[in-house]
Design a protein that fits this description.
The chain is mainly α and 109 residues long. 91% of the residues lie in helices and 0% in strands. α3 packs across α4. The protein is elongated.
């Protein structure tokens, strides 16, 4: 009977060892996916971090400027079309907005 208990303990220990191994493997894979090593390396090189942030900020700024330009041009184009329809109240309001924008674009600074 003593042998049976020892066998059970051995099997339970092996099962726990396998569970710990699977859990450890899962954690290692998740850490690899999160690129924690690259992040810590980046933190140890502050000038590289600054350079990457400057590049990212510049790219965001250029992207926002281009996107806003397309958005504003589309809105102005739609307002010009609506102004051409000669809608009673809305048409006058839109025409005033278009005139103001066009004057601003024509001004030389």
């Amino acid at each position: 009977m003593v042998m049976a208990n020892d066998d059970k303990d051995t099997i339970q220990t092996q099962d726990r060892t396998e569970q710990i191994f699977k859990l450890t493997s899962t954690i290692a894979q998740q850490l690899e996916k999160s690129r924690i090593a690259e992040y810590t390396e980046l933190l140890n090189r502050p000038w590289r971090l600054i350079w990457l942030n400057i590049l990212a900020g510049t790219a965001r700024g250029v992207g926002i400027a281009i996107g806003f330009t397309f958005f504003a041009a589309t809105i102005i184009y739609l307002l010009q079309i609506l102004g051409a329809l000669n809608l009673p109240i809305i048409g006058d309001y839109i025409a005033d907005i278009v005139r103001i924008v066009q004057r601003q674009l024509e001004l030389d600074y």
